[in-house]
Amino acid sequence: MQKVIIVFTLIISNIFFGQARKKAERDTEQWRYEVECAGTGAEGTYLVKVWSYSKRGNVSIEQAKKNAVHGVVFKGFVGNGRDCITQKALATNPNIEVEQEAYFDNFFEDGGKYMKYVNVSSDGNIDAKDRMKVGREYKIGIVVSVMKDALRKDLESAGVIRGLSSGF
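The structure corresponding to this sequence follows.
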């Protein structure tokens, strides 16, 4: 009887967390997020805070990681004037996301290649001041570290972005 209860509990929790993850995936599918500098990271990395929007307060950390890498590749971010400077997006072609859609679909899929270039700098806890209710949804901030040098090198080798030495 105890085994049945354990199996039933595992099935229910798997269904619950699977649906929460799908909801977070839909919320971030439109790439609604903001990226801001969160300080200086190790050499070759950006330390950024990514603000993601969701109707659920528990946006998965994986979605925040995707948003951070997406922001570094396509948007860049504004410095805070003290210890951070403004960083341009790695991709200089504004249409590259559409032109290389198949590449980026695979790159950003769950468990995709983007995970090699991002780490959560906190232990997964979200500070109370980084969880805000905005209208009917939540705005959640998570600090992550993006390995921009390795990411750039990978995107250059895949032919997605031009190298710094390729000239004009």
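The mean pLDDT is 83.
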